[in-house]
Amino acid sequence: MKVAVVGGGGREHAIIRSLKKSPKVTEIYALPGNGGIAEDAVCVPIGAKELPEITEWCVKEGMDYVVVAPDDPLVLGLVDMLNEKGIPCFGPTKAAAIIEGSKAFSKDLMKKYGIPTAEYETFDDMEKALEYVKTCKIPVVIKADGLALGKGVIIADTREAAVDGIHTIMEERKFGASGDTVVIEEFLEGPEVSVLSFTDGKTVRPMVSSMDHKRAMDGDQGLNTGGMGTIAPNPYYTEKVAAECMEKIFLPTIRAMKEEGRTFKGCLYFGLMITKDGPKVIEYNSRFGDPETQVVLPLLEGDLFEIMQATTDGTLADVDFKFSSKSACCVVAASEGYPVSYQKGFEITLPENHENIFIAGSRLEDGKQLTNGGRVLGVTEIADTLSEAVDKAYETMKTVHFDNMYYRKDIGAKALEVK
Ligand code: AMP
Ligand code: GLY
To answer: Which of 49, 28, 46, 47 is nearest to 37 (CA)?
Structure first.
């Protein structure tokens, strides 16, 4: 089978490495991929948001299956365009990807179907939003409605900060049209858990749980980033919590989407907070998380391609797969200055065996890999215990180098305190 993967970050590298193990996959293409992915797939220089170009290329080159990994092309409807040309895909249609594309939609869905989440109000009128935060409970959370690279969330500890946040999103339009509408919601407390799941619209099969580390600096200080490291499994996701999530969140969400005529197929990502009143949904993503995927897929015992096809065909209940009982840790190395501004173009040195290093931002020049993004790579190690996996990942990180490199030194520390 000829398979194309749309996207070009660490997540896509992990997906491609996993797909390569499938005996059914004979050729893999990445659109656009990156300098590191080029070792594992044929990279084609078409950007993930160039929908007509991607569709035309996939038809011309006879792709048998397309994995759409990033949020933008999903929300814009790439799966629909490819399906119209008869090409099956992994990922939701535009109608279903709205669960990530609009926070107002996902909040209303949860309210309608009784799925536990933070209390909220939605505003498209700035004056009304300002009026609301005069009297609401503080701290309060203000979110731009649309996609904002995980950055359109402001946690306001004071009323003044809430007013500033509304101005930033709705007046200065820091997140563009994403901020035409804001969701203002109750501040929840508790540990966070990410659960990625496979679903064919009827059956939902959660993957091993994970924990992201979103802030740029140690001790959860600094700005929010796309994610600076992950561990799996997440110790807060006990069997009891998992059972409660399945009953009150996962199955009701899949049924709700079907009921709304927006059957969701692909990977549905549940961003959860384990509050004292039980697990609640912080956000849904319509895709694999980055860098969650870099710890989850290496623990998969099964054929990823077969599973993906089953989500498309509606036969997910019949596929045999499980997750290893080992632990994994992924530490992300970024360019100094990320997530704000940073330099690119520094040569990356990797150890000879780098099967466990996923490249997020690099390009090839004269056979050398040069840094080409904020997040540059992720080192993933697997071991019998989390503590060993963390140690191994930091050992391996010592063998990686590029100028202006930085990484958090405390990935997994919080999780290790739990046990
Ligand atoms: P989101 O993009 O919705 O996942 O939000 C980004 C981060 O903001 C989350 O991972 C949480 O750490 C935090 N956050 C979002 N919503 C809330 C909330 N209602 N209460 C507390 N923290 C939140
Ligand atoms: N790591 C969080 C995300 O992929 O949205």
So the answer is: 28
What residue's CA is closest to ligand 2, atom 2? 289
pLDDT 10s digits, 84-115: 999 999 999 999 999 999 988 999 999 999 99
What is the distance between the terminal CA atoms of the chain, rounded to a whole angstrom? 44
Considering every ligand atom, which ligand is closest to the CA of 147? Answer: 1
* Per-residue pLDDT reduced to its tens digit, 313-367: 999 999 999 999 999 999 999 999 999 999 999 999 999 999 999 999 999 999 9
Q: Is 154 exposed, middle or buried (0-12, 13-18, 19+ CB in 10 A)?
A: buried
d(CA 413, CA 254): 33
State in Å: Cα 212 to ligand 2 middle.
8
How far apart, in whole angstroms, are the C-alpha atoms of residue 231 and residue 228? 11
In DSSP notation, 190-238 reads S-EEEEEEEE-SS-EEE---BEE--EEEGGGEEEE-S-SEEEES-TT--
